[in-house]
Structure formats: structure tokens, C-alpha cells
């Protein structure tokens, strides 16, 4: 699994666990609303600064985005 | 600690554990040699694709870059 795919799956899972839409998450993270969908579709190589904003908005540690599934 | 700082510290630690210079790591990862130093100095918000290349070149899981220190 590519790292983009790993991040995409974790982001979608964490977002859905909080029952937040892509648009709402982007709003809370103060990033462009297109980024969340693009990351979840593996269309965009997101950088550390935006990952930090997303983690803050989700209330999780950024390391959660990089967890490999069992 | 910002996420840039966390990644910077982990990258430097992992690189030094392997006794590889910034230049050698960049060469092995096939990324521009400036990136490694910029990331270690927290001057650059590195993206997932380049982190994957660096992890492969270091022989570590990308999650290692996001470990928070004890």
C-alpha cells in the first residue's frame, strides 16, 4: 500500500468516526475544501503543515494518519 | 512541538542512526539534496510522497517520522 493510500484510509476513517463531512473538516482545519476530498481519493500529496491542521481539527495525534492497519 | 519539528527530529535521528549524510540520503531517495537539510531545519513542509521516498531510503516505516518522543 502506498503512503498516500494509508493516509487516505486513515483520514477517511478518523473523519467518519467523528461524523464530520469533508466540507466541515476543511472548514474546521481552515484549509481549502478541495484538499480533504483529494487526499481521501489519493489525488494529492498532502504536506506536514496541512496534516497538522487536519489532526488538530479532528482532535487526534498526527501519527494517527500514518498507522498501518492490522 | 510543531509537527515540522517532530518530523525534523525523527528524520535527523533516523538518518544519524544509519550514519548517512543528508546528501547521501537525498541521493538514495532520489530527491533534491536541498530537501533533507530544509526538513531537518524545519524550513520546508514536506509532503507524503517525499516522506515515503525518505522512509524507503532509510529502510523504516514512514510512521517513524511521526513518533512523538517520550
UniProtKB/TrEMBL annotation, chains A, B:
Pfam families: HTH_3. GO terms for molecular function: DNA binding; DNA-binding transcription factor activity. SMART domains: HTH_XRE. InterPro entries: Cro/C1-type_HTH (IPR001387), Lambda_DNA-bd_dom_sf (IPR010982), TransReg_Diox_bact_type (IPR050807). It comes from the Bacteria. Residues 11-65 form the HTH cro/C1-type domain. One of its GO terms (cellular component) is cytosol. Keywords: DNA-binding, Transcription, Transcription regulation. The keyword DNA-binding applies. This is XRE family transcriptional regulator. It comes from Phyllobacterium phragmitis.
